[in-house]
Amino acid sequence: MIEKTIENLHARYAHALDDDRLEDWPELFTESGKYRIATAENEARGLPLAVLSCDSRAMMRDRVQSLRHANVYEPQRYRHLISAVMVEQLDDSRVRSIANFLVIRIMQNGDSLVFASGKYLDRILLAPEPKYEERVVVCDSRRFDTLLAIPL
Amino acid sequence: MIEKTIENLHARYAHALDDDRLEDWPELFTESGKYRIATAENEARGLPLAVLSCDSRAMMRDRVQSLRHANVYEPQRYRHLISAVMVEQLDDSRVRSIANFLVIRIMQNGDSLVFASGKYLDRILLAPEPKYEERVVVCDSRRFDTLLAIPL
Amino acid sequence: MIEKTIENLHARYAHALDDDRLEDWPELFTESGKYRIATAENEARGLPLAVLSCDSRAMMRDRVQSLRHANVYEPQRYRHLISAVMVEQLDDSRVRSIANFLVIRIMQNGDSLVFASGKYLDRILLAPEPKYEERVVVCDSRRFDTLLAIPL
Fold first, then answer.
1. Among A107, B13, B92, C106, fewest CB within 10 Å belongs to which?
2. Cβ neighbours of residue C97 under 8 Å, at least 6 residues apart?
3. First to last CA, chain A
4. Contacts of B140 in chain C (CB under 8 A)
């Protein structure tokens, strides 16, 4: 049941971010894993611009370090919903996954709002344990918080 | 694993609409497939009124054609979240499926809002490939955009 | 496939509440089952305070009874989305489950809003049929409707 394996990886990703275990986030990628946040508009135009881009797990760890040391005035809390997961085998050791996501942001005053929606386009290495080789986060909205502190 | 088969069909439905591949939408139904959008209020009262109703795949194709030729001033983008899928075998070739849905609408200015929520009540033919014989979209809210351009 | 069994239990929980079949809600718990709504803030501080707490199925039935007899001026409708389910075997007869949830509330005037988000922390007894031994609903927001009529 490859679908279950992939959904479990997506679930661990969601809980790492939602539980504020940011340090666990890079560990879900391969050493040379790539992570990129883009907008649907830019992807449709073939523009290589990304809102945020990491080319290796080391860069992701750096990113987490700087987030931890930054003065973020408003602590942010996210809640991820992941749905409509589709899995396609690429070769013996790799799959492609497409999934929809919705991220709710909970503000200090208790308000909740739809923060981001879009789709995850993933290439996943299966063994020795499932890890993202590449995750592209395609956001529906071109509007972005300039202070996009936490990965999506 | 019949559940996976059904969840995969629901996922392909979601991505067809969210990727603006409207032409793929009727192909997920049988030739005499039925599609209906109703409200929880009307369903509870046993009222046959539907917000939108198609009695065959041909009608769905017509609907898509007219959407493509209509002057829609604001291009719409949707994002579907599907959850709490329940599957029940009806006979050797058919299942019933119930699932919750949430549709986020992304406006031109970048705002995202909860557009619709409700449940999908489906009758699905399994072979030769899974297709909807009937999908009833029961929306929680009786309030509807008069210009309900894209299927839910 | 233990994951499917657990996801099916979560789905039945969601539909019981969303279909206003409140009487079915306690039946998803064991006789001595526990149900508690808490906030992420209190959980993080180790505070035992709960927004709502039931220590047995009998208490849950009482709760439903009083809800049915209360004068609730605005009938409420909820829609549950459940995602990122993780299941861990505790022993031969029990599993632990973690899942994200989002609850949409539909108001009388037709408005929909993000009502609550958070995670379900469950201990589930598998046989003779899957039932919650304990469900802790950890809400992201500390702000709560004082009239939290329906269980989450």
1. B92
2. C6, C10, C85, C86, C87, C88, C120, C121, C122, C124
3. 26
4. 77, 79, 104, 106, 112
- Judged by a CB distance cut-off of 8 A, whether residue A85 touches chain C is no
Q: Could you say which of C8, C81, C110 has the minimum Cβ distance to residue B143? A: C110
Q: Sheet containing C112-125: which strands, arranged edge to edge? A: C52-54, C29-39, C131-139, C112-125, C94-106, C77-91
Closest CA to A76 of A138, A18, A117, A24: A18
Query: Would an 8 Å CB–CB cutoff place A2 in contact with chain B?
Result: no
- Residue A1 pLDDT class (50, 70, 90 cuts): confident
CA angle C66, C53, A107 (to 5 degrees): 105
H helices present in C21-78, as ranges: 40-45, 57-69
* Distance of alpha carbon A102 from alpha carbon C95, whole angstroms: 27
CA B137 to chain C, closest CA, distance in angstroms equals 14
| Chain C nearest C-alpha distance from A47 (Å) | 31
Statement: residue C74 has pLDDT above 70: no
In the stretch 107-126 of chain C, residues with CB closer than 8 A to chain A read: 114, 116-119
DSSP lists the bridge partners of residue A122 as: A97, A135
In the predicted structure, residue A68 carries a pLDDT above the cut 70: yes
* B47/chain A closest Cα distance in angstroms: 31
Using a CB-CB cut-off of 8 Å, the residues of chain B touching C106 are 117, 140-141
Q: What is the tens place of the pLDDT at every residue in C17-48?
A: 999 999 999 999 999 999 999 888 888 888 76
Q: Where are the beta strands (DSSP E) in C40-130?
A: 52-54, 77-91, 94-106, 112-125
Return the number of other C-beta atoms located less than 10 Å from residue C77's C-beta: 22
Q: How many CB pairs under 8 A join B and C?
A: 62
* Contact yes or no for C111 and B141 at CB 8 A: yes
Look up residue C1 and give its DSSP letter. -
